[in-house]
Amino acid sequence: MSRLHCCARALSDGGRLVIEAAVPGSSALPLESGIFVRAVGQDYAKVSVVAHDPVTQALRSQEVQLDAEGMRLRHVTRRYTHLPELDLMASVTELRLEARPSGWTLAPYPAHQPRHIDVYSVARELGGGLGDG
After folding, report:
1. How confident is the model at residue 3 (pLDDT cuts 50, 70, 90)?
2. Which of 81, 26, 38, 82 shows the shortest CA–CA distance to 62?
3. How is the chain split into domains, by residue range?
4. Which segments of 1-133 does DSSP mark as H helices, in order?
5. pLDDT tens-place string over residues 20-36
6. CB 83 within 8 A of CB 19
7. Do residues 113 and 23 lie in contact, with contact meaning Cβ atoms separated by under 8 Å?
8. Shared fold status for 1-28+80-133 and 32-79
9. What are the DSSP calls for the chain, one per residue?
10. Is 2.20.25.570 the CATH number for 32-79?
C-alpha cells in the first residue's frame, strides 16, 4: 500500500496511475507450487521452481538457467492482490478507479480474462475521465 500512496502523492493534477496486472489464479498467474519448464533449446534449459504461500499472497521462485556456461539462479518474489483488495488499497490512498479494460486496446474487462489494465486518478480531482482528452 505504501507504493500506491507514493504514486498518489506524486501524481500531478490530471495525472493517471496505470497498472498492468495478471489475475491471481488465472493462466497468466497460476497460484500453485511446482517445477515448471519455461524453455528448452539445443544448448540450454530454463526452469522455474515456485512455492506459493497463500497466507502472505506470495509466489517465491528461483528462475534457473542451465547452459554451457553453467547454472544461473535468479530469485523472484511476487506479491499478488485480488481486484477488490487492490481497489480498497487505492481508495485508502486517495486514488479512484477510472477504468479497467482487459488490455491496451481498451476493450471491456470480462471476469474470465487473465489480465487487465487499471487506470487510477487522484480522488481529490473532479471530472477528467479516461478519453476526455
Report:
1. confident
2. 38
3. 1-28+80-133, 32-79
4. 2-10, 83-92
5. 999 999 888 889 999 99
6. no
7. yes
8. no
9. -HHHHHHHHHPPTT-EEEEEEEPTTSTTS----EEEEEEE-SSEEEEEEEEEETTTTEEEEEEEEEETTEEEEEEEEEE---HHHHHHHHHHTTEEEEE-BSSTT--B--TT-SEEEEEEEETT--S--TT--
10. yes
Q: 117 is written with which cell numbers?
A: 489494465
Question: Fold for domain 1-28+80-133?
Answer: Rossmann fold (3.40.50)
CA gap 120, 20 in Å, rounded = 12
Query: Greater confidence, 60 or 7?
Result: 60
pLDDT digits (tens, 9 = 90+) for 66-93: 999 999 999 999 999 999 999 999 999 9
Q: Which three cell numbers stand for residue 26?
A: 488465472
Closest CA to 39 of 65, 18, 21: 65
Given a contact cutoff of 8 angstroms between Cβ atoms, the answer to whether 59 and 32 are in contact is no
Q: Which residue in this structure is represented by grid cell 524453455?
A: 39
Residue predicted with more confidence, 123 or 36: 36
